[in-house]
Amino acid sequence: MSDLTLDMQQTAQPASAAERTALLQNPAFGRVFTDHMITLRHTKERGWHDWRLEPRQPLALDPATLSLHYALEIFEGLKAYRLPDGGAALFRPDANARRFRASAERMAMPLLPEELFTDSVRALVRTDRAWIPTAEGASLYLRPFMIGTEVALPPKPATEHLFCVIASPVASYFKGGAKGVTLWVSENYTRAAPGGTGAAKCGGNYAASLVAQAEGEREGCEQVVFLDAVERRWVEELGGMNVFFVFDDGALQTPPLTGTILPGITRDSLITLARGMGLTVREEPYAIDQWQADAQSGRLREAFACGTAAVVAPIGHVKGRRHGFVIGNGEAGPVATRLKAALTDIQFGRTSGPQGWLDRLF
């Protein structure tokens, strides 16, 4: 357990109640931010130190900061939810803390104690509790991240780091209700290769996916789906979400975690919930050509993506240079609908879930 004490430096100029109410009406994802942030520093000599809650403000970085040149950066995404009695809770923050450590290890960064991660997130939410939305489906999105701050140009692990947590109230990620999203099959680009950083939540993975995302948007698609880097055959994941398939026998399938796919916490939660409902869940490879054949034959009944931001997003259409098919009637199916309802009911405290999933803050 860390012996650090959080230095509370609250802002003298918080947003007024009227300003905050206006901003919370329908906040676009990641465009509105709360009054405070958490900062925590690490050096090779001192370890973790200077743990602070302070007013949200720009970071001052030297132009030769290592993270600006070699992408020494990792991050997480989790949410705080308003509960029916007016309280608030986090969903499985311990899982985010463990994944953050795994990402840090892969990126040659210092391992943040899990207690410091969760205590930092809790402190920020408690301080900025008025920013947690009350609208249906809205929540407070938390973005913990770490960057290498050493001033140096040689490509090497940094000896100085900054951990930070910021918060952003968000409404629903995808609009349109039951309408399924349209995916673009990327054939020119891959997200990750064996031995790479696919299982780490680092900014470089997302930066490399953006050119494919832009290609998909030009083709009228909301998201891109990546294939494996070796055979260009197996479905891996979307730009920022895992993917599930539902077959005519009621079984679910999702690509296995082999090091090239991010181990999503929403993915893991849905697997647990589905198996608790008596559904079969297979973690097995699935080929893009088989996906098309199964959709056209009717063997595949549903497909959906999942992640912290979107929760569950039904997939309606898939397009590509060699592919084009509709899944079911192009809308959310009963399994995806049921799983999303079960998960969000737990997150918003409407029903109880597995022990430890909901971390009540107040």
Automatic annotation (TrEMBL):
Gene3D superfamilies: 3.30.470.10, D-amino Acid Aminotransferase, subunit A, domain 2. The keyword Metal-binding does not apply. Keywords: Amino-acid biosynthesis, Aminotransferase, Branched-chain amino acid biosynthesis, Pyridoxal phosphate, Transferase. PANTHER family: BRANCHED-CHAIN-AMINO-ACID AMINOTRANSFERASE (PTHR11825:SF44), SUBGROUP IIII AMINOTRANSFERASE (PTHR11825). Belongs to the class-IV pyridoxal-phosphate-dependent aminotransferase family. NCBIfam families: ilvE_II (TIGR01123), PRK13357.1 (NF009897). This is Branched-chain-amino-acid aminotransferase. The lineage of its organism: Bacteria, Pseudomonadati, Pseudomonadota, Alphaproteobacteria, Rhodospirillales.
